[in-house]
């Protein structure tokens, strides 16, 4: 699909469809590689680090420093073999996340969202998916967690343009998971006490496969 005329759509990083949602499924390999190759991989912060347990600051400067952060996030995400990464997962107190995630139809999505907000959807657009969930900040641990199988997020791209992102299935879970991070919530915060304890046990008994920041 060709990018639509800029007099019809905003001149953002990604083109948008007829409903105004970003088209994040085109040129995924090239776009992800370009971000990643400019970036430097950083270690992942883990549960217990204060930056993960508070709401992050809004992004207000969409300049070179943010661009470098985004590149570093893609590099860090690839090192950790993740499908989404929030800025506070590499210790940065800003509302931005990146993603490289497939949906349940096999489509790959790659993009950046700053200052995300989940759209409160009507009941007829929501059906719960009780699949398993994990987190790079709770390494080696997984637990079932029911989330809506469709999600919409509003926010800005890395240049400050307003954007809307939507996803189904696994990608919908990713959008919700990463937005949660930026408001101080880990997925284990949505589990029962018993399930949370089990997830932390899994984490304690296994070694992460990527560099992490040890909590003091």
TrEMBL record:
The entry's keywords: Hydrolase, Iron, Metal-binding, Protein biosynthesis
Enzyme Commission number: 3.5.1.88
InterPro entries: Peptide_deformylase, Peptide_deformylase_sf
Pfam family, one: Pep_deformylase
Cofactor remark: Binds 1 Fe(2+) ion.
PANTHER family reported for this sequence: PEPTIDE DEFORMYLASE (PTHR10458), PEPTIDE DEFORMYLASE, MITOCHONDRIAL (PTHR10458:SF2)
Full protein name: Peptide deformylase
Organism name: Streptomyces xiangluensis
């Amino acid at each position: 699909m060709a990018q639509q005329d800029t007099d019809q759509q905003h001149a953002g990083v990604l083109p948008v469809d007829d409903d105004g949602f970003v088209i994040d499924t085109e040129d995924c390999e090239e776009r992800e590689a370009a971000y990643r190759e400019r970036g430097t991989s950083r270690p992942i912060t883990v549960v217990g680090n204060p930056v993960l347990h508070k709401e992050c600051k809004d992004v207000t400067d969409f300049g070179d420093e943010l661009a470098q952060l985004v590149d570093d996030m893609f590099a860090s995400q690839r090192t950790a073999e993740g499908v989404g990464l929030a800025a506070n997962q590499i210790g940065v107190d800003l509302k931005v996340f990146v993603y490289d995630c497939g949906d349940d139809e096999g489509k790959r999505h790659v993009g950046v969202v700053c200052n995300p907000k989940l759209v409160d959807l009507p009941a007829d657009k929501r059906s719960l998916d009780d699949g398993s969930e994990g987190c790079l900040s709770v390494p080696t641990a997984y637990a079932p967690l029911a989330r809506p199988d469709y999600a919409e997020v509003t926010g800005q791209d890395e240049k400050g343009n307003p954007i809307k992102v939507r996803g189904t299935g696994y990608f919908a879970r990713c959008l919700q998971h990463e937005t949660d991070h930026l408001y101080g919530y880990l997925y284990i915060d949505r589990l029962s006490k018993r399930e949370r304890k089990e997830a932390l046990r899994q984490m304690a008994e296994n070694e992460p496969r990527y560099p992490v920041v040890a909590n003091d």
